[in-house]
Structure formats: structure tokens, C-alpha cells
Protein 1
Amino acid sequence: VGEGDLAQIEKLVDELHPADFADLLQALTPDERRFVIKVCRHILEPETLNYLDEVVRDEVIGLMSPGEVAQAVSELETDDAVDILEDLDEAEKQRVLRAIPAADRAVIEQGLTYPEDSAGRLMQRDLVAVPQHWTVGEAIDYLRANQDLPDDFYDLFVVDPMHKPIGAVPLSRAMRNKRIVKLEDLMHTEFRVVPATMDQESVAYLFRQYGLMSAPVVDDAGRLLGVITVDDVVHVIEEEAEEDLLGIVGVSETDFHAPALETAWRRVRWLVVTLCNSAIASTVISQFEATIEQIVALAILMPIVAAMGGNAGVQVITVMVRALATRDLQPRGSNVWRVVGKEIAVAAINAAVFALVMGTVTSFFFGLPIGLVLGAAMVFNMIWAGIAGTLIPLTLARFGIDPAIGAGPFLTTTTDVFGFFSFLGLATLFLL
Amino acid sequence: VGEGDLAQIEKLVDELHPADFADLLQALTPDERRFVIKVCRHILEPETLNYLDEVVRDEVIGLMSPGEVAQAVSELETDDAVDILEDLDEAEKQRVLRAIPAADRAVIEQGLTYPEDSAGRLMQRDLVAVPQHWTVGEAIDYLRANQDLPDDFYDLFVVDPMHKPIGAVPLSRAMRNKRIVKLEDLMHTEFRVVPATMDQESVAYLFRQYGLMSAPVVDDAGRLLGVITVDDVVHVIEEEAEEDLLGIVGVSETDFHAPALETAWRRVRWLVVTLCNSAIASTVISQFEATIEQIVALAILMPIVAAMGGNAGVQVITVMVRALATRDLQPRGSNVWRVVGKEIAVAAINAAVFALVMGTVTSFFFGLPIGLVLGAAMVFNMIWAGIAGTLIPLTLARFGIDPAIGAGPFLTTTTDVFGFFSFLGLATLFLL
């Protein structure tokens, strides 16, 4: 790319799938990116914008005129268009909207009224709704005659006179039946209706739980508004799994394309949490200064107690957060206490095993008394990790707080504090 | 459920979606589960088995006769049937296979020949392939006349005389065109062909990257074997995101339904790694025993240096592992050094800020010299975290090792060791 052979670049870009071109743009430096956009703006496929990361997309849109953006946006599906527009600043958004043809604009503006991360934002407005009394033949004739219908769809939605969805006919069933068969007799009524205001996390749950390919979206009155297909939900499902686990680790998002200073700032929050945590742990240690002064071996061994408790706790909390997210576990479900009991049993088993091993090794190097204290502190702390690892996420979930966010740092604070306290406390009691 | 009102249980189960029934079974105790299965075995929908967690599924299948399992399995789609059979032990598998009708058995046995986690396992064998020269009308007549075709499908695959796929016609396009239109003129040829041996991770990448709804699967000679639809891939995409992040945390899987002893055993591996890590860190500390003896404040403060480095490093490594998994970053890509540079810059910025804050606070409590040493050690360790956090996953990826597995524990070992070494080492040099 650095070479600047215009014709060759154009040819390359033209052959690339928009997703691959987006990847290429993202791999370039900002300067190279500017150059490629300048050369290729006339052959840029609108879908490319959707595949771009938010940071790079802002940059690319900044290089295009409002008219060009409007042109691109109106060629996209509603949900993708709304996605792009909502990230623009207000003035830019208005400029682009004014340049979009009125009919498209109305649909996009309505899309923007739904809350972010709601079903209304995920759905496409383009769908095929047919009345109950139609036959397969009538539907086929309607599809053939009407040029204004969406290109790709997978179901015919059967609606009543109030435009409420009452059934869905997969295209494959419609095609496999004779023209005289009534759609009513083909439709299945087991589909899940999604209110436009439903949170995207709940939508993803429905799709995953019931293996759905598509679901109709309705307004408050139950009227058919749009359709969500599984490909719209794939990235939501992925994001949800990612967010849960990133929250546990203490990273807010995978900010791969943001500039260094912005990335540094985004990560500050969790580093501040870590700093507070370790400051609390240090305060606990400082209470036992006199003990450490007399037995320096304690300073050498205390990280082991804290680390084992922390790791055992993170294992528990990860399992709990995922079980809560996939709704295998309900915070007030009948199996909650059984699960808590099992996790504490697991913690106790591993605590006993590791305390025995490490206590023996330590006795060998530092003498039996220190070995016994270390073993006892490890048992206490690892069982505590099992208790805290189950109860912290359950309690957060009961109060309606996302259990993933901060569960990890919060947990390791407790295991650090409890680990140092039990180890140094037992040593003060029994070794001095 | 405990009440035992048979008719009511049966009615309840009959109304439940198989996915919900599976959830219900999983929430029960093993005894309750046995009871419900005994009562409901005659109305058990085969799909229920697919929604069950592996541990619970084994239990449920153990309660069924080979004949019943065979009956259930032959009603499922090929990929789901293979999924269930491959988890059975060899003798049980043979008993079930013998009870399946010959035609279904052949298809399932062939499915079992593909490697686990390959495209061949994900695909359905049921698809609709049509010759190139057919028209829309011929295709519709074929679909109507042939009762042996799958219930739900989304594309007609156009094949050449060698049965190689040359195009795909989405059903919606076929329906919207007149009977005389040739399929050849409607088909798009941009579909991605998936070899049956392709790893499911690569399949998931294709679907996510190009927003595919379905893709044809071919054998070594390029002949059409089956089709993978996006719903088959959803759980793969989710699993991949989950595995990456679980690997970083050091949990091998979310073993929610396994019994306590088995769960304890599965978690031992990462606890052993943690133990080794903290033993190494302890060895480093023990080298500075004499220094700590003289300045106990060091023992109080050293966890702060290690924790800040560890957390900063985990943030970096998480971003890197996800970028490698989503192929935003290639281990030998042209942007590797830019990315590494950016991450080290981010680490340096945050290192400077936090070292300044914490050095000042420490000076206030423990005097300026200790504050300076702490600040310097924090800068070194957090920059080291940036370097290790980028280079460890990149190096693993270059050698073809999954960078997610163990990256976190490996990283924190280096930040613990480097943190203790730099803090205690600087103190030994300048404070004694």
C-alpha cells in the first residue's frame, strides 16, 4: 500500500469483501488510511462502514462529506444505518439526516428513538407480512409483483387485521406446498414475540435458549414492527460472553483501535480499584509489623496464602457469573443453596489437599510450627474464597447489579485481606 | 415437583419448550431428575437431549434404554445426533447405533468419522441441491413433489455435474421471481465454501467476518456434502469467546453441573500453576530476607507493586488475546510492532501516573526514600507488564500455541517476580 500505485490499489479494494477491506483499513496507520480513503471513496461499499471498529469508523466518516455518508447510509439495512448514525455527534447527524431521502429518513429517525441496546435497534424494518386468509399462491404472486420488498428474508409473517403477528411460515414450507394451501395451515405459532423495548441481552437469551432463526418485533400494542434475525444477534451473544469475562478480569472493553492516551484513560478505573485493594491489604499487613519483624519467613510465605485464595475464588466467581448470565442459575432459584453448598465443598476439598502439600513443604524449609500455621491459613482462606466466590455474585444479582462488573477485583480484595489476616494473625497467636 | 402429582407434572412437561424442560431437569437434584424422567420418558422430546449439559445428559441417557435413545437420536438433525452419540462410551454407542434404522445409521456413522470440532460435525446433511440449468419453476415443482426433503432450509445450492457447489439461491430470491427465470441468473457465487475438515474456530470466523447465514460444506474433491447454518455456529462463537477469557483467568471450563469431587479435580491444574507461581515469587522474596529484616515496611508495601503490575498486565493480555482470536491482529502482521509500541506507551503513561500518586502517599507514611523506591519499582513493573502482556501471547501465537491458555497465570508469575525483585532489589541497593 505504501507504494501508491493507484490503479493497483483500486483494483485490490474493488475485489475485496467489505469485511476484509474494513480489516485492511484498520491495520493501516492513520496516514495510510487517509490516503486509501481518498483514492477509494468512489468505490467504497457502504457495508464497509459497519465492519469498522468505532474509532476507525469515526475517522473514515470524518473524511467523507455528509452527502457521501447519507448516500452510504441509505443503502444499508435500517439497523446498520441507525448503528452508524447514533455514533455521530449531533450536528453531523443532522447534516447527514437532511441529505437522506425523506422515506428512508423517517424509518431511520424512528429507529433512533429506541433505546440503545434494545430490540428496536437490532431489528430490520424490512419484512414480509401477509394476511391470514392468503394461500401459498397469493403470497407467491404478491412477492413476484411487489418490487419494494426486502431482498433477503426467511419467513412470511402472518398478521391479523390489527397487524399483530399470529404465525410465521418459513419460506421453505411455503415453497414445498401447493398454491392452494392456506398459509394459516402452514404457519407455526410457536415463535417468540419480542417487544421493541426489550434489552438486547434478553433477546440474545431467547435466540440462544430456543435456537431461533428469526423473531418478530412488536410495539406496545402488539403490532408487528420489524424482524430480528439470528445474524443480528450473533455479535450480541459474543459481546455478552466477552463482557462477563472482561468484567471479572477488570478490563472494561477490548479497546484495540483507540489511541494510546484514550486507552490509558479507559484502563485507569480498574487500576485505581487494584490500588485501593492492595492498599487495604497493605494496611492489614502493617498491623502485624511486629510479628514480621521477629519472623521474616512470614513475609516470604504470605503471598502464597493470598494467591491461592485469590485464584480459587476467581475460578468460583467465573463459573457463577457465567451460570447467572446463561440463566442456568437464578439468584432466587430453588437450586441456589445446593450450588453454594457444592462450591464450598469443592473449595474445602482443594483447600485440604493444597494445605497438606504446602504445609509439608514449608515445614521442611521453615520448621513444623510455620508449616502448620501456613496450612491452617490456606484452608481458611480457600474456603472463604468458595463462600465469597458464590455469595458476592449472587448478592449483586439479587440487587439487580450486573454480577460480572468488578466481581473479580472485589473478590481478590477479600481473599487478600482474609489471607494476610489469617496467616499473620495465626502466627502472632501461636508462634510468638 | 417434589409433590409427585403425576398428571400435573406430565401436563407441565408437555407444555414446556424442550430447552426449558432441559433447564428444569438441570435445576433438579439427581433424585428428583430420576423421578421426572421415569414419569415423563414417553413424552420426552428428542431435542431436550441437545439442550442438556453433558454431565446431566449422561445421567438422563443412562436412565433410557438403547432403543429409546436410538428412537430419539434418529429424530434429530444429523449434527445433533452425532453430538449425542460421540459422548457415549464405545459399548453404549454400538448398542444405540444397532437400534437405529440403517439409512439414518449410515449418515450418523459418517458424521462420526469427522474429527471433533470440525466443520463436518457442525453441518447438516439435509440440504437441497439443484442442477444449474433448472428454472425457478422446476425447482418449485421438485420441492413440492419430493417428500424426502428437509423441513427447514434457507438456500437452494446450485451444483455442477460433479456435484460441486457453484452458487446459492436464497429462497426469498427464488420466490420473488417468475417460474421461467433460470436459477443460474439468480444465484450468487460469493458464498464461502467450507471444507469438512476445517476447524470449527475457523468456521465461526468466516460466519462472523462475512455475516453469513449459511455455507456449503464440501469434501476433499470439492463435492457438496452438507450445509452449516448460522444457528449451528452461534454456540461455537460463544464458546470461543468464553474459552479465550476463561483461559486467561485460569479456569478450564464452566463446569456448572459436574459433581463436587470432579469439579475439584478439574480445577486442580490451575491451582497447581498458581502454587508454583507463588512459590517462585516466595523464592525471590527470600533472597532479600536480610533487607526485609531491617526495613519491615518493605513487606507491607511489596504486594502493591506486584498487584499493580499483575493487573496492568492482565488488561494488556486480555486485549491481545481477543485481538488475536478475532484476527484483528495477526502474529506476523504488518501492524504488530505498532500495536506493541502502543501498549507499551499506554503502560508507561499509567505507570508514571500511578507511581507518582503512590510514591507520594508512601513518602508521607514511610519517608521519602521508601516512596522513591516504591515509585521506581512500580514504573519498572508496569512497563514490564506492558512488554510481557504483548510479547507472551504474540510469541505463543507465532509458535501455533493457543495464546489464551495459561497466558494470565504465566504473566502474573513474571510480574510478581519482577515486581518483588525490582522493589526489594532497589531497596537493598539504595536504602541499606
Protein 2
Amino acid sequence: MLVAVVGVGLVGSEFVNQLLSIPAESSPFRLISLSSSSRTVLFEPANAILSPEKWKTILSTSNEKPDYETLTRKLSGFINPATEVAIVDNTSSDEIASLYPQWLKAGINVITPNKKAYSGDLGLYEQIVRASQESGARFLNESTVGAGLPVISTLKELVATGDKVKKIEGVFSGTMSYIFNEFSTGSPDGPSFSSVVSVAREKGYTEPHPADDLNGFDVARKLTILSRAIGSSSLPSLQSFASVKTTSLIPPALEGIPTGDEFLKRLPEFDEEFDKMRKDASKEGKVLRFVGVVDVVKGEVKAGLEKYSTSHPFATSLGGSDNIIMFHTERYSPRPLIIQGAGAGAAVTAMGVLGDLLKLV
Amino acid sequence: MLVAVVGVGLVGSEFVNQLLSIPAESSPFRLISLSSSSRTVLFEPANAILSPEKWKTILSTSNEKPDYETLTRKLSGFINPATEVAIVDNTSSDEIASLYPQWLKAGINVITPNKKAYSGDLGLYEQIVRASQESGARFLNESTVGAGLPVISTLKELVATGDKVKKIEGVFSGTMSYIFNEFSTGSPDGPSFSSVVSVAREKGYTEPHPADDLNGFDVARKLTILSRAIGSSSLPSLQSFASVKTTSLIPPALEGIPTGDEFLKRLPEFDEEFDKMRKDASKEGKVLRFVGVVDVVKGEVKAGLEKYSTSHPFATSLGGSDNIIMFHTERYSPRPLIIQGAGAGAAVTAMGVLGDLLKLV
């Protein structure tokens, strides 16, 4: 299988390294193209990139600008009954996501941790599904939820084998997991909310602007992706992540602040509010967790702060920036199927992407 | 894909029901053969069995005796570039397991929850791997560990994408899980061991002879299956499940008692011993759990009773007959990847089998 990689940031670089660490003689893949936002290279299959040491230099010394029309045309030209092609989109770009239908129509498989196409407008998603059905090319997006954890494949298997999903509930954001594992342990006291967010940012757990995590949209996007994998037409979240009932953690007075630095400087003004929520939860023997829920029975999908008993797995079992996902189904009842582990980070995200690629061969 | 089913007991029947509940017009499968220990039917692809209501009658009114040589020959005859064939072995038979190399050589895919071939002598397993490599036919055995939980597929993906497995640790037996979740909760007192085992047997959680669970061999077999999926040559368990350091829970004086009834009548003589272990664990703030460990770093593989702190997930998070499996790897470190849920039962086991079949198409 010929592979073209778009996006060579943290996840993209790690992905290329993992891909090229499969010994060439046993690898079913040939890496023939790399694109960053400013440069691109594309080789004939016989001249595929093999060296984990040299790919960065090969790309950085190219003078070609990315041109996705040319890429699509040339890649299609390589497809024949003995040769499949896959594009791996490691960007988080809306623009690249909008190209998936065109790639799939051309018979090119699409693998990505990019949530945009799968959580955005239903129109684009339907085009993707239709294009894949028409050409037989496949799209896989395991690492859009839970990074390398087997979340989407498990959900698809439950559905395909005839199980009925009743509810999916989980901590889906590594950032939110870290923040609340530190902030709310069941005790009425602890570090201030703003200090926890600051440390999370220093450790690289948040986006440069923490409001991009605290708005809850990352969780809402994941819930739309799961809703579409369930396929139940009663879920409002099918439409787009904007249809998820999302409760932002950004204090209204801090909405629209342009920089992360300024945001963090003002966040302490709201520490008392967050502290009161922690104290209230503690009084009930509970902790605060930012969770996502897809309730198929009630037709309700929401992302927001909830309280859980200190004996609940969301309180006892989580640490670091772990994700935890509980599938309540007809067969996994009364006790759910649970998947837990690191839900963010380049190594595990790239692993999920490579795992998808391996499913194609 | 043409499907032949061998074994129509609890799991086998549920599997056939799940398979036939996929609407025929969208199903990629055609069920053309069923075999029990005493009867068999085999149809031409055009006359495949479609009715979830009638398959039992079709089989029970057949006068044909199972004949696996004929079955193999006829199924091979159906294979062509457009038609694949799979045999689903839902028995726990050593004899059927010994046929896998022959089936794979003939180009027939093999799917099974039967642990025998994958946990028995290395010789048979190597024949299976070789036969699959030669013909390209595939073998999948997800439901040999954790029933429908995605345990083996997750492990294979970790390995295939270059992660290094350091240790796998878990509660792998639904029966042992139930017994110790009931028997040892952290408190020094509780129901007697023999009464818990009796109730478990009444609920159908144990084999007819509870010693077949208490010997720990079921867990040892699963550890050998996982060891082979890891493929590290340092693991003694690769050789066979008999090479796993297994600590049986059968009191030596009760070894070899022929019937389950007699065994249960005498088990109360040993309640005091088990009670003492529970009290000792409780004094240390711990619970007893029957676990399996594959320690790749130490090259040690063992099944036996261990003590875990009452705050450990094996104590806090388990219930019913749940399995829980922790993967400690280079990437999932310091916190493991965890999979948890019902690890026994016909519905979830059959689901794992059907999930494997879906991976083939």
C-alpha cells in the first residue's frame, strides 16, 4: 500500500517515525509523499522514502508547495488491482478535511486523527460515507476519540454484531481529565482552579489558549463522532458537534479574550466560584469531572461538568490525563464495557493512526 | 463469505442467531454448514441457511454424521477468487482444534473461541501459523480471552505498531472474578468460600465440576494465548499453558474427586483456611483476587491468588463476573491501558466470534 502523509507536526512526525520503523522488507507500506503547510514531496513508488533518519531533511529541502489537486491526480494514477493508496491526514485542518470525499471518490483510503470532518456538518460526513460506498475506498478515524484506545472499533463491533447501545459516558478530554483529577479529589480543599490550569498549560496538556479546551468543544466533537458510529437517528448530535448540549467552563466575562496569557492572568478572579463547586461536591461525597454523555435511550447528548461519587470509577480509577469510556449496552448490562488509558499524546495518537492503516492490509 | 459452523451449544447457538440476524440482503455471509457432535448438514451456496427460526430443525432432522474430511474437501471446492470460506469452531474440542492446520492449508479461514489450539503444545500452534502464512487464510481468536472484550486485537495492535509490552496483568476468569468479588471485599468476614462456590455453580458461573475452574488452568491457557500474541521468546508460557506457574485453589486432599457434587460436599472442610487468607489480607488493607500475570521484563508468567490494596482497580472497579485486563507498555506508562467488562457468557462470547468474522470481510 502506498502512503501519503499530510501534516508532519507532533503527531505526524511520530506517525512517520512509527511507520518507517517497520522493517522495509516486512512492511506492507511504501511512504511516497509528505506534505507540511509549506512544502511537499511526491516520489514514484520505486523511490519510496525508507529512512527514518532522512525524511525530515527530504521534506525540508523541497521547494515544492503543497498542491492537493496534483497530489490527488498523481496518487489516483498509482491505483491498480495490485496497488492501494492511503492518505493520512495528521492536520487539524478544516480545509484538508473537506478534501476527503474527493479522495475517497478517487479510490484513495483516508486515515486521520483529525476530528473536523467527522464532527462537523452532516453534509460533509454524508458525502464521505457516499464516496466510500461508491468507490470501495475506506475511511478510518480510530484516533479521533481516545487517541490509541480502541474506542471506535469497539463501538462499531458492538453495533455491527447486533448489540444495542443504550448509553456511552466518559471522560473524553485528556486536558479536562488532568485538570479535574488534580482539582477535585473529594476533599473540600485543594489547589486553586487557575493554578491547576496554569500548570496544565506549562506541561503542554492544554492548547496554547486554555479557553480552547475549557469551552468543551473537543468533547462535543468526540460525542458527535460516537453518535455517528452508533447511527441512531434520534440523536441531535448527528447534525454537528454544535448540536451537542455543551456547558463551557469559560467564565462569561472571559469569553473572547484573545491570548492565553491574558486569559490566565484573569482566571484567578473566578477561583472562588470553582472552589465553591468543589466544596459543594465534597459535601455530597462527590468529585467534579468534565464528562461527555451520549444517552441513546433519552436521545440526549451533552458535555459538561458533573458530580460523581468518590467510589465511582471516574473518581477512583482515573489519573494523569487518562480517558475512560463506559459503554452501557444490551449485552454489557448491568455492568458496562470500560476502556481506559492515556487519551492524548503524540505516541499513542500516532499508534491509533498506524493501527488503522494496518487494518487496511 | 461462506460460513460453516462446528459446535452449536450455548455459544454456538447464540453465534448462529447473531449471524442470521444480519439481514440477508446486507449480510456478507452465507451459512452453508452446521455440525453438532452427532449431526451435520452442508448445503450448496445457493441454498444457504437463512432462517433464524429454522436452523435448529434443519440440523436436528439431518441423518448425516459429522465427517470433517468430507467437509474440508467440499468447502475447499467452493473457494475461488470471488468466494472465501470460514469455519467457526464453537466447540472446546482438542480434536477439532487439531484440524486447524489442515483447514488453513486448504485456504479456509478459522475463527474460534476454543482455547485448545492456541494454548496447547507449541507444535500445533506453529503448524497453524505456518499454514496461514502459506495459504493466506487467516485465523482469529479474539474471544478466547475476555470473550467479546477487545483484548487480543488491542494487544496485536500495540505490538504491530512498535509498542513494547512490559507486563499484562488481569482478572481473566469470569468465574474466579465472581467468586472473589463475593468472597473478599476488604472486610475480615463474609460468606464462607464453599458457599460462594456453591452459589456460583447454581448460577451457572462455574463448570459442572467446580474444580475445573479452581485449578486455574483456564487462566493459564489465556496467559499462553497472550504470550504468543506478544511473541517475546523469553516467555516460558509460549511452550504451552502447562508451562505457566499456576497455583491451583483445589485443596490437595480434594484433588481427583470425580464429581462436582461430591467436591462441593467436602469443600466446607477447607473454609477455615480460606477464611484465614481473607482475614490476613484484610489486616493489610487488601483483598484477594485470582489473577494472571505475563511479566515480559522478568520473563515470568503466573496464575494464582494475589493480594491487592482495597483502592486498586481490581478491588474497587470489579463486580459480577467482570474481567479486567491492564496492559503496561512503553507508551502506556506509567498508567496502563485498561479494558474491563463481562468476560464470560454466550451473548458476549458469540459477539467476539462474529466480530472476528466481520474483520475478514
